[in-house]
Recover the amino acids of this structure.
């Protein structure tokens, strides 16, 4: 792994921009951007439009390493160019932003109140491509919908099993066991999740740390135990469906945790905005998330 990037991720101010919407979430993301479903003829055109949106964000004067610590990319984004430069190289060498890659293939059907990740039979090949492209770390998402011990255990066990595979490839995994913000017993599920993660962290060395991406908790400071844990490079929070205002407010109450927002990052951005309007909206958004991440 890149030691300069690791040091930046461990200690610098900023947040992680999640620019990794994939097949299922792309039409919704484009719709919020003002490009309605049906504006594209096929998936290729849809992803062209999505890449144009992501490129516009990354190339904006508001988007730089001064406030944005890292960015999570979709596989097709890693394979494309931004301003004529491979995306990961553009982020690191032109913006001082650490590049991550979403590696999961989506969610399996719910069982025991949770959804583990679908199988990833080609993961080793993808990790090899990621290393070649200059990617620093990865991200993979599971979902917990209720405080079921079997479901929580299945999610965490799978996340750490795959994390060790990713660490072996020389990359830093972001482990994302999302707790649904609408879970009826969200606080209980989060307590179970914290304990399960703590047990698994005993298998992770401080010289090859993981990152954790967690839902903003019901109990402020619930994840303090991870913030200074030797085996955790950084704790980041997902917005999870909360509005940007609510997500920022919740984040500011959890010291040492930084944002990794997706929808909350792009809230208010529109395809029809002038570059000046777009940059001004993005600048305000980035500043708000940056300040909440510094609290």
């Amino acid at each position: 792994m890149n030691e300069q990037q690791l040091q930046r991720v461990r200690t610098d101010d900023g947040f992680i921009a999640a620019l990794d919407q994939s097949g299922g979430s792309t039409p919704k993301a484009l719709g919020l951007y003002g490009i309605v479903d049906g504006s594209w003829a096929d998936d290729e055109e849809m992803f062209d439009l999505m890449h144009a949106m992501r490129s516009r964000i990354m190339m904006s004067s508001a988007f730089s390493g001064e406030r944005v610590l890292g960015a999570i990319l979709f596989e097709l984004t890693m394979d494309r160019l931004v301003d004529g430069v491979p995306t990961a190289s553009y982020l690191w060498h032109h913006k001082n932003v650490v590049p991550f890659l979403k590696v999961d293939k989506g969610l399996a059907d719910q069982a025991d109140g949770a959804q583990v990740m679908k199988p990833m039979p080609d993961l080793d090949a993808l990790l090899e491509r990621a290393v070649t492209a200059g990617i620093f770390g990865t991200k993979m998402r599971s979902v917990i919908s209720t405080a079921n011990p079997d479901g929580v255990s299945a999610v965490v066990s799978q996340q750490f099993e795959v994390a060790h595979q990713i660490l072996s490839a020389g990359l830093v995994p972001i482990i994302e066991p999302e707790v649904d913000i609408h879970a009826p017993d969200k606080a209980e599920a989060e307590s179970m999740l914290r304990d399960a993660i703590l047990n698994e962290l005993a298998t992770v060395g401080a010289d090859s740390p993981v990152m954790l991406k967690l839902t903003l908790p019901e109990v402020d400071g619930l994840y303090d135990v991870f913030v200074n844990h030797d085996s955790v490079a950084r704790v980041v929070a997902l917005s999870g469906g909360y509005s940007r205002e609510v997500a920022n407010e919740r984040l500011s109450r959890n010291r040492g945790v930084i944002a990794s927002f997706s929808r909350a990052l792009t809230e208010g951005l529109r395809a029809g905005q002038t570059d000046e309007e777009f940059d001004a909206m993005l600048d305000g958004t980035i500043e708000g998330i940056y300040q909440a991440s510094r609290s």
